[in-house]
Amino acid sequence: MSKKLYLMRHGETLFNQLKKVQGACDSPLTTLGQEQAKQARNYFRQKQIQFAGRYASTQERACDTMEMIQPNSFYTRKKGLKEWNFGFYEGAPEYLNPPHKSGQESYGDFFLDYGGESVDQVEQRMTTTLTQIMEDLEGENALAVSSGGALFSFYLKWRQEKDRRPTFSNCCILVYTYQEGQFYLQTSIDPGK
Predict the structure, then answer these.
(1) From the CA atom positions of the chain, what is the Rg in Å?
(2) Is 11 annotated as a binding residue?
(3) Is 140 annotated to bind ligand?
(4) Is 16 annotated as a binding residue?
(5) Which residues bind substrate (predicted)?
(6) Is 151 annotated as contributing to ligand binding?
(7) Pick from 29, 83, 105, 156: CA 20 to 30 A from residue 121's CA?
């Protein structure tokens, strides 16, 4: 049976607004971030999409987004859905992020030397967590709320040559089908547009 994963980024946070590096550290949703979550909630309602399972990163920004999208609904918090840990760069201005090395699309293993994670580590824990979620899912659709870097790492692992690169804006929704242990990107949705 084919299942669908609706993998979302949280709404805009204070650190997003201030252009600060935000991985393992956390900051609250802004008014705009709350509005983005409500737009995602309206999208799911209009499309009449029901979820057999709901999951969020353990970070406040993801939980708050989930609670606005699915108010009064049970969800499970998963550490494996947390944002990329940027080590000593946490909370620093975004302009201090390193440039990508030639031929790379991400920061690779740069943050390992600064107490953070590599793109491979983030991809592996996201894949492990999301695979378990989909294997255990008793129904058709799952919703998972995470963060931009984690979504991008997961995307790099599972993208196909034909895939059009999605935007990773706040509250974007990446829709994957899951079959026989594999994830296939179907579409990306920006409910605010």
Answers:
(1) 16
(2) yes
(3) no
(4) yes
(5) 9-16, 61
(6) no
(7) 29
